Amino acid sequence: MFQLRDYQLEQYRQIVNSMKQGHRSIMVQSPPRTGKTVVMAEIARRTTAKGGRVMFIVHRKEIVDQVMSTFKTQGVNMNLAKIGMVQTFTRHLDSLPEPAVLFVDEAHHALAKSYRRVLDRYPKAVKLLFTGTPYRLNGKGFHDVADDLVVGKQISWLIQNGNLAPIDYYAPKQIDTSDLRTKRGEFTEESIANSVKPKIYGNAVKNYQQLAAGKQAIAYTYNVESAEKLAEAFNTAGITARAVSGKTSKEDRDEIIAAYRVGAIQVVTNAELFTEGLDLPSVDCVIMLRPTQSLSLFLQFGMRSMNPRPGKRAIIIDHVGNVERFGLPTDDRVWTLDDTKKSKSSTTTSDIKPVTVCEQCFGTFYRTADTCPYCGAIIPVKERKIEVDEEAELQKVEADKRLARAKKIIESNATMAVADKTPGQLNSMAELKAYAELHNYKHGWVYYQAKMKGLIH
Ligand SMILES: [Zn+2]
């Protein structure tokens, strides 16, 4: 049995207070990887100790074992606890006695009809709806299922107090996100495949070598093929990597996890959206090659690297611009049960501030000075605004897309035009960029050349 941390105990007390105030359906916000199962286990332990039954609806069968083991360790009377997928419960609704407490995991997407049938079947049970991100893609609130909200600590607080590792966030731009299309709120696999150019895998390897060499990493990709290609690119570069997906057998998966644990595998590439079945404790670097519209997934991806260790800084390398949709994972966020207005640029309840990406080192940060906090490089002034007016914003998005396409065409023409020139003959940013592209030079080269030529200050 392990002791609850102070913030877990605080959340436990907040839940108990809410119950005492008469709330019967409480949404509990708890960031990923901060031990919400331990909080649930404490409630379950006290409930079963008094003879009450508990029921736990998990959203993935892979975590049933993990929850059972935590519950057992924490002293829950397992004779009074039922843990399973929603289907398991719906099949036996008539034979299962009413629980005193009903836990729901990942409650932000667990509000489908099947869940409602189970919840509605037990009017007297206290429902505790846990989620890291009480937010739905359609902006609809949760008043239909919850009558109170208990909010956990902010990620910034958890870092400051040693419960999560601090992060360095890098966003090298290698994917053209302007053509991403959505289906049911999430990007389609086809549109991602079209946006990812073959060289992205090689670049992901290069960036890993530059930014996180030697660190154990997990890379999130968008399908099985891309996971395998990326693993291949790593192996070619001498970095041991293995791909894991829904197609991987349990034996292979266990073998990969064991090899990763002892450091025999450096990088795991993963095409699965839900990764609870893949328990890799020593991840220090996350590589994102999967664009997502889901704040929940974004935080699950990023925070996978944030298990703390003295002196550790986690590294997140975002190749797909997720940071532009959600801000940094460490941002403070405001949660509410109310409806939130759906907006194109923001998928959280808090406003997204524009981030700055250093062209020298890809360090990603909120600008507070003229130099990069990662490498000290001078940051050229760039205008980036997030529109507030929704109508104006829609027009802006369209205009931006056209502009981006036009820019691509100009740049490809410029590439042709600079093919026979020497650096001394380049006289504009477009030519410098085209030349750098042609010769595979880094952004930093363009920046220094432009500075030397007085094109920027
Ligand atoms: Zn920098």
Describe the protein:
- The protein is an alpha/beta fold and 457 residues long.
- 37% of the residues lie in helices and 14% in strands.
- Zinc ion (ZN) is lined by residues 358, 360-361, 363, 372, 374-375, 377.
Distance between the termini: 60 Å
Q: What is the annotated CATH architecture of the largest domain?
A: 3-Layer(aba) Sandwich
Shape: elongated
Write down how many β-strands occur, each being a DSSP E stretch of 2 or more residues. Answer: 16
The CATH class of the largest domain is Alpha Beta
**CATH topology title of the largest domain:** Rossmann fold
> CATH homologous superfamily of the largest domain - what is it?
P-loop containing nucleotide triphosphate hydrolases
Mean pLDDT: 83
Q: Walk across the major sheet and give the strand order.
A: 3-2-4-5-1-6
Q: Helicity, in percent?
A: 25-40%
Low-confidence stretches: 343-350, 383-403
**Beta-strand percent range:** 5-15%
Number of helices: 15
Bound molecules: zinc ion
User: How many separate structural domains?
Assistant: 3
Q: Note the main sheet.
A: 6 strands, parallel
Give the class from helix and strand content and strand pairing.
alpha/beta
What's the helix and strand layout?
Layout: H1 6-20, E1 25-29, H2 36-49, E2 54-58, H3 64-73, E3 81-85, H4 86-91, E4 101-104, H5 113-121, E5 126-131, E6 148-151, H6 155-160, E7 167-170, E8 182-183, E9 186-187, H7 189-195, H8 199-212, E10 217-220, H9 224-236, E11 241-244, H10 250-261, E12 267-270, E13 285-288, H11 295-303, E14 314-318, H12 322-326, E15 356-357, E16 364-365, H13 390-418, H14 429-439, H15 443-452
This protein binds zinc ion.
Zinc ion (ZN) binds at residues 358, 360-361, 363, 372, 374-375, 377.
